[in-house]
Design goal:
Blueprint lengths: L14 H7 L5 H15 L2 H10 L8 H15 L3 H11 L3 H4 L1 H18 L9 H11 L7 H11 L11 H4 L4 H18 L7 H18 L15 E3 L8 E3 L6 H8 L1
Helix pairs in contact: 4-5, 4-11, 7-8, 7-9, 7-11
Length: 260
């Protein structure tokens, strides 16, 4: 009886994929893109580890990552007062010179106060009202957008949570914290002379645009093309396969959100 043999057929690869494999990437350029991403997005441990494994000299911006991360985490947790104090400690003139960012932070602080003493809570809404009167009301008349944002935020005290219009209810969603944290991160990076957005995002946008244009002109491409953003660094560090994953990975869904 003849035992079945294991197939050794080479999986089919599209001609575009074969040409892509022939492209030789500059290791120096790739390392720079990875380090830029880790610094911009705030991954201090990963940045230090990658710099060591890739044998590259960390930039001065690495030292400030932990401070930016602490500010970001405070905003994510809704501790806006602490975040503002940390921003002022790190850069005393940033909020003084950026009225829009300062107002966005104060408005988010108001949202957090309302969250704890809203219409459905037994807690007194006086702290939120006093904060709006003292911190936001004097600033609102200086900019029509400030006034509109304040009016929309105060609507959180008028309606019960279950009756809030969708655009008002959205103020209580985590996205507002995330958006403000991103603005703060970009402002701090700009003040430090760094790029406000990682170059990786520009490359992802360019990659998506190129594929779109190629398909519009009916170029011969594979039916599906992944972004391949699992960053693997072949550094022979003795872990068995010489590959070390550096930094976060992104699913295709997350990458699609980058280019939306």
């Amino acid at each position: 009886m003849t035992s079945p043999s294991t197939s050794t057929t080479t999986p089919f690869k599209h001609s575009f994929e074969r040409r892509l494999e022939e492209v030789k990437l500059s290791k120096t350029d790739l390392n720079a893109v990875i380090m830029d991403y880790l610094i911009s997005e705030g991954y201090p441990s990963a940045a230090q580890k990658f710099a060591s494994e890739a044998n590259i000299k960390p930039t001065s911006a690495v030292d400030s990552i932990e401070e930016r991360v602490a500010i970001r985490e405070a905003i994510y947790q809704g501790d806006i007062k602490s975040a503002i104090e940390s921003i002022n400690d790190l850069n005393p003139t940033l909020l003084e010179n950026d009225d829009s960012l300062h107002f966005a932070l104060l408005r988010l602080q108001l949202v957090e106060l309302i969250r704890t003493c809203g219409a459905e809570s037994a807690e007194d809404a006086t702290p939120a009202m006093n904060f709006a009167t003292e911190e936001l009301a004097p600033r609102a008349p200086t900019n029509p957008e400030f006034l509109e944002d304040l009016e929309r935020t105060m609507m959180l005290l008028i309606f019960e949570r279950k009756d809030l219009p969708p655009q008002i209810a959205a103020l209580l969603e985590p996205k507002l914290r995330k958006d403000v944290a991103q603005r703060v991160n970009e402002a701090l990076l700009k003040e430090q002379g760094e790029k406000t957005k990682a170059r990786l995002f520009d490359l992802v946008h360019l990659r998506a645009w190129s594929e779109q244009k190629a398909r519009e002109t009916r170029k011969d491409l594979p039916e599906h093309m992944g972004f391949g953003l699992e960053l693997m660094h072949n550094n022979g560090n003795g872990n068995g396969n010489g590959k070390s994953h550096i930094g976060p990975t992104h699913s295709n869904g997350e990458v699609e959100a980058m280019v939306a």
